[in-house]
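Protocol step 4 of 6: record predicted structures for both targets in the notebook before any analysis. Target 1:
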Amino acid sequence: MAELTSMAKNSLGNAAVLVPAWEPDASLISLVESLLQKGFGAVVIVNDGSSAATGEIFSQLKRTHAVHLLRHAINLGKGRALKTGINYFLAALPGCAVLVTADADGQHTSVDIAHVAETALENPGKSVLGSRGFVKDVPLRSRIGNGLTRQIFAFVTGARLKDTQTGLRAFPREMLPALMGLEGERYEYEMSVLAHICGSDKPLEVPIETVYIDGNRSSHFDPIRDSMRIYFVLARFYLSSLVAAGIDFIGFTATFALTGNVLASVIVGRLSSLVNFALNKKFVFHSRTSVIGSLWRYYLLAFAIAACSYGLIWTLAFRLYWNVFVAKVIVDVLLSLVSFSVQRTFIFRRAEKS
C-alpha cells in the first residue's frame, strides 16, 4: 500500500509545466499535446504579448483539456511571464507539487521535460536542471555564451553547473514563493533564480538533448543585449567590494600620508569593512543569518585579510622596494578574490531549509 502511495506521489499528474511564449509557431501545439499524453496534471501557457498572427495557435491551445492559458496585453519579458505563471500555479493549482518551466522555441522535448519532472518528484524539496551537453552541432554564439557565463557564474557563486542558460528547470512548490520576489523581468530573471537556488543547495542536473532548430533562429534571446543583462546581475556581487575598497584606499592613503606607518594605515582602511559587511549581507548574498553570527565570522576573516595585507605590503614596499600604493592595490585585488570566496562559502552561505 505504501508503495502504491509513493508511486502516486511521483506520478506526472502531480506536476505542471509552465511555458512562457512569445510569437510561437505551431510546434508549441504538438509539444503541449505530447506533454498531456505523458500524464502531466496541467500545462500553463503565458502568451507574453504575441501578435495577432499567432491567435489561432493560442485559440487551439485554449480549447485543449488541462491547458491554462494566460495573457499579457503587451510583451513584458520572459522573467515577467515566468512570474505570472508561477503566481497562477500557486493560486490555482494546489494539487501539483512540482512546477517545470520549459521554452516554447522547440529546444525542449517532451521526453526531457518528463525526465526532469520525474527527477524532481523523486527528490522532494530539490530543484532540477535539464542540462545540455554542447557536444556537437551547437551554434557558435550558444557555445561561447554558455561557456563564458558558466565560468563567471562558477566564480561568483561557487556552483559549477554544466548549463547555466537552460530554461528547462523543475522547482518544488515550497520554493516558488521566494522566486516570485527575485529581480528581473526578462532573461536576466533566470540567472537571478539560478543564483538564488545555488545559494542554499546546488540543484540536481540531468542530461537532456541539445536541440537547435535552424541555427537557433527561433530563439528570442539576444546574445549581446541579454547577455549584458545576465552579466549585470553577476557583476553586482562586486559592487560592494568596490565601494568598500574605495573607502579603504582613501583611509589608507590619508593615514599613510600623515603618519608614514603602514600598520596604522591598514587599520584605518579596514574600517571600510563595516560598510562591506552591511552591503554584502543585505544586497550581495541576501543572507538571512543572524547579524551577530555572521559578524564575528566576518571579522575573523577581516583580521586575517588585514594581517596578510600588512605582511605583503610591508614586504613589497620595504624589502622589494615597490611603491607602497602600487603594492597596496595589487595585494588588495588578490586578497579580495580570497575574501569573496570565503564570504560566499562560509560567512553568508544560506542555510538549507529543513
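Target 2:
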Amino acid sequence: MQKPRTVEQPAELLSYLFSAWPDVKKKQVRTWLKFKAVTVNGSVVTQFNHPLKPGDVVGIRSDRYAVPGDVVGDDIQILFEDATILVIDKPPDLLTMASEAEQEKTAYFQLTEYRRGNDIRARERLWIVHRLDRETSGLMVFAKTAAAKGILQTRWEEAEKVYQAVVEGSMPDDKGTFRSWLDETNPFKVFSVPQKPNMRHAVTHYRVLKRGKGRTLVQLTLETGRRHQIRVHLSEAGFPIVGDKKYDAKTNPVKRLALHAWRLRLPHPVTNEVEQFESPLPAELVRLV
C-alpha cells in the first residue's frame, strides 16, 4: 500500500492530492473524495477545499478503493478502482478464472478475496468481463456489479484492445492486417480454416515497433476478439510468439509467453466517458529485442 503524505505547506485538499499523487488520474482522485477514501490526520474528509496546514497527514483508505499501484494476491497490480469497475495488470502464469485443476490461483478468486477483505462471510462479488490466456500478462477489467458487467460486455466491440508481442524472426512489413476464419472447436488449439458455417472471422492489425536479435517487437490491435487469435495469426504468418511452444515457437529464453495486453480503452459503464489504461511492456520482454 502507498504511504500517507505529510503536508509541508498550506494548501487546499484537492490541489494537494493532485500534487502528492501526480501519477493518479484527476478523476480517480475525485472518486477518492466522493467515496470517503481520503483521510486527514486519520479522519475522513470529502470537502475538496478543506484547508491543510504543515504537519497534517493525508492518507488514502485502502478499505475503500485501492490506490493505483497497490498489489494483491499473486502480484496482481490494481491500476484503477471505483464503484463499478476494477482494472488490473495481470502477471503471467495466472488463470483468469478457475479450471478443474486450479481453483484458487486465479485472478478472479484472489480479487474476490481482496474485495471481501479476506472475510469469508462478506458478500461482495466481482464479475468477469473478458479473459486473458494464463500465459499472457497485462490489462484486464472486472465489473463490480452485474449491471456494469452487462454494459461492458454489450459494448465490448467498442473497446480498443492493443497488445504487444515479441516474435521469432524479422517481420518484413512495417504494418499490415491478418484475416482468417478460426476453428475453435478444439479446446486446446485453434486453427485457421476455409470459411464455412460455425467458423469465426478474426481480424488482427499489426505494426512493427522494433527489430533486433533475430526477433521483432510488434504491436497488435484486435478488431475481433477470438480465442488465441493473436497467437494463431502470428504463428501461421511464420512469426510465432517467443515462448509459445503450442503455436510452434522454437525458443523460450525468459520462460514465459512474450505477449502482453498493453492498452485498454473503453467507455465507462456508468459515466459513458472513455477511459484509457496502459501497462508498460515488462522489462524481460523489452530485453528480448
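Step 5 preliminary note on target 2. The CA atoms of residues 258 and 285 lie 6 Å apart. Helices lie at 13-20, 26-34, 107-116, 146-154, 229-236, 283-286.
Proceed to step 6 after PI sign-off.
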